[in-house]
Amino acid sequence: MKVDLLDLRREYNSIKNEIDEVVFNVISSGRFILGPEVEAFEKELEKHLSVKHAIGVGNGTDALSLALAALDVKDGDEIITTPFTFIATAEVIALKGAIPVFADIDMETGNMLPAEIEKKINNKTKGIIAVHLFGQPCDIDRIKEIARRNNLFLIEDTAQAIGAKYNGKAAGTWGDIGTISFFPTKNLGAYGDGGAVITNNDEIAEKIRQLRVHGSDKKYHHVSIGFNSRLDAIQAAILRVKLKHLEEWTRKRQEIASIYSSRIKTVKVPFTAENREHIFHQYTLKSRRRDAFREYLKDNGIASAIHYPIPLHLQPAFSYLNMKKGSFPIAEKLANEVLSIPVHPFLTNDEIEYIISVINKWKE
């Protein structure tokens, strides 16, 4: 049996008629950039997340860049974040001329440790970018308290965690700004690039809306140097369809994760911390012999992925920070052990049973 990590064709086929209709309608309308479809999606996303403002932008990386610009990050500012995430989280800090400062993570969840964040704060620290890794919220209440006490901004990178909740409140809505990615592989994915910035702050929302269209508050009037980062109408229309199904798809992911966690015995299954609703963007196992384990799964037709094989402080792009191996031991250990397996909501029962059977024959 062959099992893909994700199957977007199955997803499309399940909503084909809805998708085809809305795409045709957008093409027929002649409105392709921003416009009524984007505005309608923004309103629906606000309602879904119980947040005051949702602003559609070009992609999740742009969402982070726009957030930093709206918060007036300058050269030399230090921004604390995690070394165990996709590079975009720290890349946008560097692109602003600021300095990414890494804080080590929790061995069980892979999320940032509040105590480690506190150790990194100094008079150059401007803010924190907290990541909700793999779909599980980090200790966002404690991180928010640290930010408040030290007069720091708090951005939540919610690229992997749309719909996840901490104490019943949506990830991305705790800090000053939340950022979302609609990359096709995300739980709510477009058919191309897309992203959003969410906030409960009116002033920040107004800045983001201006910055996404070249710093313009009205046509040909530019109040700041901005970006060209706008959500396409076709993507918004597709996301509106998918948003209606997101809760159902999330429940299915959670059901599959629960089955895996109760029945996989040979490797370490994910840990969900208290007061979290984990939406399982990834179902990530840990194995002391990860590379051999991955080859074993491949030989048995099961796709997998390593999220992430090299912590950011060891990436060549960040060599100028002069971070050596051993600087963040937990991040480095996880990078050698983690392996994500299929958990998408269109897995069949036979595929789920096959994955469990194969994994339970593995000799750790």
UniProtKB/TrEMBL annotation:
Database matches in InterPro entries: DegT/StrS_aminotransferase (IPR000653), PyrdxlP-dep_Trfase (IPR015424), PyrdxlP-dep_Trfase_major (IPR015421), PyrdxlP-dep_Trfase_small (IPR015422)
UniProt xrefs under Pfam families: DegT_DnrJ_EryC1 (PF01041)
Residue list for modification N6-(pyridoxal phosphate)lysine: 186
GO biological process, one term: polysaccharide biosynthetic process
CDD domains noted in UniProt: AHBA_syn
Gene Ontology terms, MF aspect: pyridoxal phosphate binding; transaminase activity
Active site: 186 (proton acceptor)
Keywords: Pyridoxal phosphate
Superkingdom as given in the UniProt entry: Bacteria
Family membership: Belongs to the DegT/DnrJ/EryC1 family.
Protein name: Transcriptional regulator
Source organism of this protein record: candidate division TA06 bacterium
Source taxonomy: Bacteria, Bacteria division TA06
